[in-house]
């Protein structure tokens, strides 16, 4: 009884409250949020027990601020992961001191997990009451020897990470304080290594092996390809693991007959199984495929956007080269074209015609916010190909599906057959593309057309190593009997442009990188990828390297890039790790001169139909200015000019929002005046970038009956070298708004 009475005393109740706040709530939350992984639980227990030991029986003036700060970090972590799929960074901490940001973020029960907020609040309040009730001096803090327990757990976490690294997202492996501490320790270690090496960070490195054009392999075809046309079918987000021949070739542990119809087609053509996707996002994948270059290996401004200011490099992209050699070039996708500015980027690459959702007149089989469902898309694409085949001119057509993009599109009968909407959407796509390829064969298209089936990116597979970087390439050519069923070697999206030009024996521009899929090589090659927060490189000599967010790299003995059974060789940091990150930075070099002004024009003067009600910031976005990088110590000026087109008397309501990493960010944008018929709205404002803004997006939203046209939507970012910006707040600069008579403006 005396023992039980001790645990009912205020002192032990205080200890239990601390354990609840720092250990039990994080563990329970992890399970409820679906972030269950042994590394994460171990991180929660280690950090939580460390804080319990440090704070037990400390004075209220010491413990309470730390507990409140812990609660804020816990909430911020959960909210940011829920909103944009990433953990907070140290640079995000300044938002906690921004009263406007905090008030807007929590306005109207803005927290997505209010139950967690209440649990933390009640726990902290209970702790304060118990500590006040406790008699002063009744107990002393825990002995320092208790620190050994959490330190041993942290050492165990590091050892397990060393021996068996995980590819799971950061929040599966770490809680927030542990992750921030690990990053800080890694940065300190890297800075020390820089000092010991006496070498400044960012020094030039050799990337010739990654950027070279290699056409020295033995041709698979004895003469130039017989096809007259090129058809590139790009499937949204499909990993190579979904094709059974790819799984068999690479001995993948993934099980599941996910895409049986496409798998059967893969057995008829030439399939490249060890095929690398270099990044996430459709526009980055399309850029790598069609321009023979690595996309940005981080979250900076996509090179496709930078291509808008570089016509010389644009002329070297595959569509421009095919057009130069007499082909008519066409791009057709199921979604609207404005998102990610594909309405401008694809023509810049050299497409004669760039068409999106508005082109399709056939009836869709189901409603999908992003555009045409996959079955309806391929039915429309067949009619487009029939039109092309009536022409005498050879053609190049690139297709881009959308149904396997979140929130995923599938009819009810598919949703009933599969455990989740993602697999149902993949199955629906499999049937649609299978029927499409069957139709191409029946109509004789495969006899005179080089057909390439691939994916823009990989939406990944849980607990499958390298799935986020695993793509596929399937070639169906008229001379199929001369090609192997399985193409050996490591290839990637960077190789597609050189491969198509090589097939037709056309000149390949010097700035194009990669190898030809239509050649055999006696030696390996370097290739690099950045997906799921991991930078990976294969040196072409049996060595695979993977570096995580802590700048900790691991080496494996692996004959290829995609290999789930690689032999682990050990970890490294310091100069060797820094060289790999510098290679990525070198490849990331913008297509515009360093330190120059960045100017992008996202307006195209074309009518844009409005909806009576908007429901989605992404699908209803009227402008394609997404995922930009605004450098540190710069100032950005945005200028808009919006014109009414056939609006009814009620006019249109407009709003401009900004996001960073897909989460709303607070920039004081002036309210847009109501747009009425016969008028234009002109707005110009500036804002400062005290720190680098990455994955920064503009979302222009509108409601009304009719259409509008963007005559101007320019984003200009200029460096500030006068030193004034450091003293300024993050508030906007001058703001100008006006409405003008449209008829007068058009006359002028």
Roughly how many Å is the radius of gyration?
A: 28 Å
Classify the fold: give the CATH topology of the largest domain: Alkaline Phosphatase, subunit A
Low-pLDDT parts are 1-8, 97-109, 724-733, 742-748
CATH architecture level-2 label of the largest domain: 3-Layer(aba) Sandwich
* CATH secondary-structure class of the largest domain: Alpha Beta
Measured by DSSP, the beta-strand proportion falls in: 15-25%
The figure for the number of domains is 3
Number of helical elements: 23
Share of helix among residues?
25-40%
Name the CATH superfamily assignment of the largest domain: Alkaline Phosphatase, subunit A
Head-to-tail CA distance between termini: 93 Å
Instruction: Report the strand count.
Output: 28
Mean pLDDT rating: 84
Looking at the structure, what is the overall shape?
globular
The assigned structural class equals alpha+beta
Q: What does the oligomeric state look like here?
A: single chain
